[in-house]
Amino acid sequence: MASSEPEPTASVPADLASAGERAAEDVAQAVETSLETRSSLTLPPLRRWGAGYLAVLFVAQFVISIATLAPSTYSLAIRVQTMSPSDKDTMLALVLTIPAIAIIIVNPVVGILSDRTRSRLGRRRPWMLGGLVAGLVGLAIIGVAPGIPLVIVGWTIGYLGLIIAGSMMITHFGDALPENQRGKVAGINGAITQIGPIAGILLSGALVQMPFLLFFVPGALALLGSVAFLVRMKDPSTKEAVFEHVSIGGIFARMVFNPRKHKDFAWVWISKAATFIALYLMSIYGVYFLGERLHLSQTAVAGLIATSGGIGILMTMIGALGSGYLSDKIRRRRVLVVIAGGVLAAGLVIIATTASPTQYIVGGLVFALGTGIFGAVDQALALDVLPDRVTPGRFLAINGLANEIPKAIAPVVAALLVGIGGGGQYELVYIAAAVLALAGGLLVIPVKSVR
């Protein structure tokens, strides 16, 4: 007589596994839902930004980039050398590192809080204004500081303030910039960040004999140059909006996201992180690599790097402006990111096999072109895959971590690679960077919501 009990089948483990996956997805979904910002906020429709509005925005971006980049590339080195000439290398690294670590935590928190800001001035404007004021105060502190400890305090305040001000501008793109303008605006924005350091160094060179003005003037320029944009900023009042209460723990919980729910955003994040590790690997051992490979003196190496970098700025601007405009015109981002990864990889391979100064310059120019293409289109793509317009501050701040975290990863990776086989394997760093850059480009292929 046949048994009435069902016989075990091979499908039971599969069913259990499937049920387990569904349960895990349900838990992830519940966690993500609990982190969503529930509010009464009503967002206006996206409208095209006019030439006048873009003009004041780009002026603000330009002066903020001067105030942010001039100290880190020139002024702080001068100030630290004056105060501590015997150990200037260590002290400068300390001055630059502490704020860089702090911004990894502070910027996402500010982005999340700005999403929930109730203010007659809107959500982003108060934070941008506060950041600019903090930037001016911090830079002024450096100008009057009697020693390194106060320089560290001043630059930490100033750097955090200026980075926050700049991030609020990018978040404003997520709030209100129409899709068909994102590539062009991101391209021009990328070009401005290339010009800013040059203008900042020229300004600093004129003020180098006046320590207080050397730092105060860029900070004041950033604040005053942003006034027109702050007045015109399309950031409507949120005074009447109602946001649910969130705890300190809830704020930090929002610094992560559910990649199962936001798959496109996750792919873009991973692509950016891989590419930025490659970008940082490029710059770590350049001096040592060129000295050994081409048998050049330190002075000759500095001249070669300066020549390549100077011409490279033009290539970066061409890549940023051209790709930004093209991505809006053809309404495609992913293919340009893939191309950028290929161009970056080609430039890094040319550099890795350098046999002459000319070859190094050619590789640097190819690399710079890829940097411009990626920088513009990646920024536009990040705006395209934002999960919603209510919390762009949160997601753009998380996206920004794909830039900041590689700063800590790249030096460790580079040191491990150089040490292979007894040391001196500098070319492996560039080859690894090429592989990562190519992978970074290819990683946007799975993105479904953007062409």
SSE string, helices as H and strands as E: HHHHHHHHHHHHHHHH
Largest sheet: none
Strand-residue proportion: under 5%
**Overall shape:** globular
At the fourth level of CATH, the homologous superfamily of the largest domain is MFS general substrate transporter like domains
Point out poorly predicted stretches: 1-14
Please give the share of residues in helix.
Answer: over 70%
Overall number of structural domains? 2
Give the structural class.
mainly alpha
Mean pLDDT: 85
The third-level CATH topology of the largest domain is Growth Hormone, Chain: A
Distance between the termini: 62 Å
Rg from alpha-carbon coordinates? 24 Å
Number of helices: 16
Q: What is the number of beta strands?
A: 0
CATH top level of the largest domain? Mainly Alpha
The CATH architecture classification of the largest domain is Up-down Bundle
Task: Describe, in plain words, how this protein is organized in 3D.
44% of the residues are buried. The protein is globular. The chain has 16 helices and no strands. The longest helix is centred in the N-terminal third of the chain and has 33 residues. It has two domains: 189 residues, Up-down Bundle (Growth Hormone, Chain: A); 193 residues, MFS general substrate transporter like domains (Growth Hormone, Chain: A, Up-down Bundle), CATH 1.20.1250.20. Helix 6 runs antiparallel to helix 7. The protein is an all-alpha fold. The N terminus is likely disordered.
